[in-house]
Specification:
Layout lengths: L1 H29 L12 H32 L4 E7 L8 E3 L23 E8 L5 E2 L2 E7 L1 E2 L8 E6 L3 E8 L5 E2 L3 E9 L4 E2 L6 E7 L6 E6 L1 E3 L1 H17 L1
Parallel strand pairs: 2-14
Antiparallel strand pairs: 1-3, 3-10, 4-9, 5-8, 5-12, 6-11, 7-8, 12-13
Amino acid sequence: MNLLRNYRLLTTVTTLVTVAVGTVIVLGATLGGWKLGLHTDDRAIIVNTALVIDTCMLTAVAAVLALLAYRAATGIPSLDIAITFNFSFPNEPVFEAASGDDDEVIGDEWRRIASYKQSWATVTLTNSSAYAAKNPGVRIQLEGLGGLGEHQGWEQVSFVTSVGTTQIQWDGGTDSIVHGQWSRTLPTLNLADVRELVPGGTALVVTIVADGITPIVKRLPVRILNADEYTVYTEERARRFELI
């Protein structure tokens, strides 16, 4: 938005200045007796030269402004994502494990995330640049986790029989953009009942794409804590909130 306003101001000021300078040159050659460095007293030649200079100036300015307009329209966006679970800080997912026997290893299954408000997340895609991000997309891969349920607005892109869904994807499509200096809220994410398959090695691997940019990959470690550990975390979280 700021870039667009600056471009419009630059275009207006530059055009006015160029027209004013060109007018002064033509009037000087026509009425002021200026020779413009020419070794001749032929007024027709001098005036024609002034008109040519004026035309060349306007053409050069128009070319530069067109180049700036192209740059403003085709710049590279700067995208980032924030996945904020209830009771966790952005991109720092921490969960309490379900109580009872699920806290322990049972066969090939590990403890699972307790199903309550903590498991819901807001997903926000942010564009911090002045350039619009066209055709954006986000893919979330479960690392060391399994048992992800269906998500409205997200497409299942990878499924393992013994694990379940391992990757989901959101596509904005060609008609969808994230404006410069703007953000877009994606469909909600819910990790209720997701199982821990690799203790200490769990994460959400997030990939962000859009036209004209190199895919951005972020790894968000996931912590699943037992009741006592989660109580300690809650106290730490409260202290961090106080500092903020």
